[in-house]
Amino acid sequence: MGKGFYISKTLGIVGIVVGAGAVATIIALSVVYAQEKSKNVSTEDGQTTTVKPPTTTPTPSNEPWDKYRLPDTLQPETYNVFLWPRLQEDEHGMYIFTGNSSVVFRCVKETDLILIHSNKLNLTTFGEHHAKLSAGDGPAPPSIKKTWLQVETQFLVVQLNGKLTAGKTYELFTEFRGELADDLGGFYRSEYYVGQVKKVVATTQMQPTDARKSFPCFDEPAMKAIFNITLIHDHGTVALSNGMDIETVNTTIDGVEVTQTKFAPTEKMSTYLLAFIVSDFASIDAMEDNVLIRIWARREAIAEGQGQYALNVTGPILKFFEKYYNSTYPLSKSDQIALPDFNAGAMENWGLITYRETALLYDPKMSSNGNKERIATIIAHELAHMWFGNLVTLKWWNDLWLNEGFASYVEYLGADHAEPTWGVKDLIVLGDVHRVFAVDALASSHPLSSREDEINKPAQISELFDAISYSKGAAVLRMLSEFLTERVFAQGLSTYLNEFKFKNTVYTDLWDHLQKAVEATGTSLPHRVHDIMNRWVLQMGFPVVTINTSTGLLSQRHFLLDPESVVDRPSEFNYEWYVPIKWMKTGVEQNQTWLLEKTATVNEMKTTGAEWIVANLNVTGYYRVNYDMGNWERLLTQLSSNHQVIPVINRAQLIDDAFNLARATIVDTTLALRTTKYLSNETEYMPWESALDNLDYFFLMFDRSEVYGPMQDYVRKQVEPLFEHFKNITNNWTKVPSGHTDQYNQVNAIRMACSSGVKSCLDLTTGWYKQWMQNPANNPIHPNLRTTVYCSAIAAGGAAEWDFGLKMFLAASIATEADKLRSALACTKQPWLLNR
Ligand SMILES: *[C@@H]1O[C@H](CO)[C@@H](O)[C@H](O)[C@H]1NC(C)=O
Ligand SMILES: *[C@@H]1O[C@H](CO)[C@@H](O)[C@H](O)[C@H]1NC(C)=O
Ligand SMILES: *[C@@H]1O[C@H](CO)[C@@H](O)[C@H](O)[C@H]1NC(C)=O
Ligand SMILES: *[C@@H]1O[C@H](CO)[C@@H](O)[C@H](O)[C@H]1NC(C)=O
Ligand SMILES: *[C@@H]1O[C@H](CO)[C@@H](O)[C@H](O)[C@H]1NC(C)=O
Ligand SMILES: *[C@@H]1O[C@H](CO)[C@@H](O)[C@H](O)[C@H]1NC(C)=O
Ligand SMILES: *[C@@H]1O[C@H](CO)[C@@H](O)[C@H](O)[C@H]1NC(C)=O
Ligand SMILES: *[C@@H]1O[C@H](CO)[C@@H](O)[C@H](O)[C@H]1NC(C)=O
Ligand SMILES: *[C@@H]1O[C@H](CO)[C@@H](O)[C@H](O)[C@H]1NC(C)=O
Ligand SMILES: *[C@@H]1O[C@H](CO)[C@@H](O)[C@H](O)[C@H]1NC(C)=O
Ligand SMILES: *[C@@H]1O[C@H](CO)[C@@H](O)[C@H](O)[C@H]1NC(C)=O
Ligand SMILES: *[C@@H]1O[C@H](CO)[C@@H](O)[C@H](O)[C@H]1NC(C)=O
Ligand SMILES: [Zn+2]
């Protein structure tokens, strides 16, 4: 039968029972959903579930310079680096930098070959060679036989006529010239305008493998060394690097008058954490104990006070981490700088953290509370790396997940310390756990941990910076900290940092220290930390735990969003996990239990009468939960009688789990939709956000089908009370709600009320926007609401509204404001405007 028939029939049903309300719509939606889904499986999650073909490996070569990893023969100790970036174009219209570098290295194993990374640098030749080699503490070195650049593996190869002596040091000198390109990698340039005047900043992004693009170096994280940096720059510009500037002199080089700034030698550190910046930026500063904290940005931004919020929170967050790690901040200063062009959100260069402007600058008149939260959490993330990552560094990139997952977890702790009223720690569930569940539930996911020998090329390293490393890493570390307790977790962390400071580790070193803390504190665990964590780290995905409250039987299985997908990645643990289960029975928290087998019976989970169970309290565990229908029904009853008995995070969980179980065809779509019924009584952000995330998927599925109308009616009915609630608590939209997440939910209320056609909402947003159009110098829309109000007003309006938005976008001098307008321009319903 054709699909038209089904849809008409469904709509017919909806038509008949329309007065009966929500349930009818829910049932109709479920029916159409099933049809749409069977029609086109590939639209199921918008992601392909096909497995990537294995990457072809080039023909193996036995020459050391054809391998991507450095041999274990040499170890750098100190570098002396001079760099001179030119902030004006040369006669060929190119921006360049010049420099020289000498590295003192120790020969660990006798060798007649020096391999040092160098990429896209033009090296000066001395005689016929690209380098000069001299003695360190030992004998005169053998002479150089031949040097060349091995482009594919990014090495400068220096072949010698004799052997270097093990145990002795030598010094290698190079002189070079590179392009200061606008490619956001290595030593690069960032441009911005002050009025009509173009300004150029020379800055760096070394992670993961671009330090070699600014000077020849042993560019692997375990090749830690001390760096003496000197920057040469124009009078009137300021030079920054990882260390404090210790000497600034004016001098003339090659007939050019310049300033030369020398920096204190760094701590022993990895190349990927280096940073060099020349700009004419301004700064504000503060002292926190003996640490100098400075916030740098464009002069205009500093003059407008946009660095003040970052300065306010940095000191408290640094103090928090010193206490959390039980380890003092290892440097004398902490510079943080906002760059107009920056690829990542931020980069944790030791002592000189770089940010996108939107991640560091806050303007009380223009920034929303979401912008503010992003600033607090990103600062906390980067400061957390000062110890975890910078002081103690993973040996190789295959363990990137531990570095990034860790910082992505504790960023919430640091931000919570700076802003204790926000409840920001709860938001990890939406921002990381639910987000990565969507990716990790695909058969094409991958484990957190990769083998060292699987990750060699720069491209393979870059691939690791994904949601699995960051968000799943954060989720499983949070789970670990929760089942150990934060006290035990922090104790293991502290001894780990203390033992390995200025050194490198593999992830099992952390497990060793956490296990020691478990033993020292007499914490009871069903298995060693290693054995529990291996299952989460070495196999991809996560389980769905099913609890049958009529029998007390628990079972687990690998959760796959597409039930038909084929998992062809083997797992030595058969896709079974050691699952910590915190749970409650009818509102009363119970003792934590563990699911250690595929199935187990927990008698306490057998319920009688109206008792219900919610497992995975606060979603501290990295898994989904399903129940027998009886328990689901009792949960739904509880939600519609007194939802507050179920913790707010778990209300969000019930919705998200139900929708995803439905997509996996484990439960009926009807059940998922029914979890949204109680929302007309809900005012909290997390359940609403969770529901809207999932309903957005329905909107995408149905926005061209006949059930779209009834669905809009249903959503309107659910959201109207929320809209009225916010109208009431904001005194007819004249106040900002006091709670941080209430401010977020106010945005949801307006977004959904307007998009589902609540008239008073459209009047409100278009009214505000009109007022602004009449008086562009005075925007009446609160920064929190701008994204949604701009979008709603432009969607409801025509060319005049769109043109005004474009005009304001082009005139915006604040990055966050420009972002909001740009995205709103895409909200118009007019194809010809969209086309523009
Ligand atoms: C490296 O460059 C700096 C600045 O141009 C210069 O002063 C220094 O002499 C150079 N070092 C060597 C060994 O040539
Ligand atoms: C490096 O050398 C190449 C080849 O001579 C040249 O095209 C390029 O412009 C040089 N780069 C710089 C930064 O001078
Ligand atoms: C680095 O600088 C320090 C202090 O200026 C100096 O004592 C040390 O010798 C320098 N190291 C090298 C390799 O030049
Ligand atoms: C270097 O020269 C500039 C411009 O002449 C001057 O403003 C600055 O104070 C001088 N710096 C030093 C360290 O002499
Ligand atoms: C920074 O802190 C000061 C002093 O507590 C306060 O007056 C100011 O409002 C804060 N600024 C921001 C942007 O939070
Ligand atoms: C903090 O570290 C010191 C040694 O560095 C140790 O003596 C002390 O017990 C640690 N404190 C805690 C709470 O772990
Ligand atoms: C939790 O465990 C403790 C100690 O074993 C026990 O005394 C207590 O009754 C248990 N609580 C619940 C709710 O089962
Ligand atoms: C769950 O989270 C809430 C809010 O953060 C907190 O008050 C509560 O103590 C947490 N409950 C458990 C069992 O961790
Ligand atoms: C729960 O157990 C009962 C009794 O064995 C069984 O009939 C029912 O199908 C089970 N439900 C689930 C969801 O496993
Ligand atoms: C809202 O709450 C009231 C009382 O708390 C309850 O009677 C009603 O059924 C709830 N509505 C929904 C849709 O759950
Ligand atoms: C509006 O707020 C007041 C108190 O601020 C409260 O008493 C009243 O019930 C609220 N009305 C609605 C419709 O939420
Ligand atoms: C709320 O504000 C609107 C627009 O300013 C106004 O028309 C309306 O009368 C106000 N309602 C109340 C209850 O104050
Ligand atoms: Zn990070």
TrEMBL record:
Name a GO CC annotation attached to this entry: extracellular space
Q: Where is the composition biased (Low complexity)?
A: 48-60
All copies of the Peptidase M1 membrane alanine aminopeptidase domain together span: 309-536
According to Swiss-Prot or TrEMBL, what is its membrane topology?
A: Single-pass type II membrane protein
Q: Where is this site: Transition state stabilizer?
A: Y470
UniProt: Zn(2+) binding residues: H381, H385, E404
TM helices/strands, residue ranges: 12-34
Please name the GO terms of the biological process aspect recorded for this protein, alphabetically: peptide catabolic process; proteolysis
Alphabetized UniProt keyword annotations = Aminopeptidase, Cell membrane, Disulfide bond, Glycoprotein, Hydrolase, Membrane, Metal-binding, Metalloprotease, Protease, Signal-anchor, Transmembrane, Transmembrane helix, Zinc
In what residue span(s) does the Aminopeptidase N-like N-terminal domain sit? 75-273
Entries under InterPro entries matching the protein:
Aminopeptidase_N-like_N, Aminopeptidase_N-like_N_sf, ERAP1-like_C_dom, M1_APN-typ, Peptidase_M1, Peptidase_M1_aminopeptidases, Peptidase_M1_dom, Peptidase_M4/M1_CTD_sf
Q: Which Pfam families match?
A: ERAP1_C, Peptidase_M1, Peptidase_M1_N
Q: Where is this region: Disordered?
A: 40-66
Q: Which cofactors does this protein require?
A: Zn(2+)
> Does the record bear Membrane in its keywords?
yes
Residue ranges annotated for the ERAP1-like C-terminal domain, each copy included = 612-836
Q: Which family, according to UniProt?
A: Belongs to the peptidase M1 family.
Q: How does it assemble?
A: Homodimer.
Its name, as the record gives it, is Aminopeptidase
Q: Which organism is it from?
A: Megalops atlanticus
Please name the taxonomic classification of the source.
Eukaryota, Metazoa, Chordata, Craniata, Vertebrata
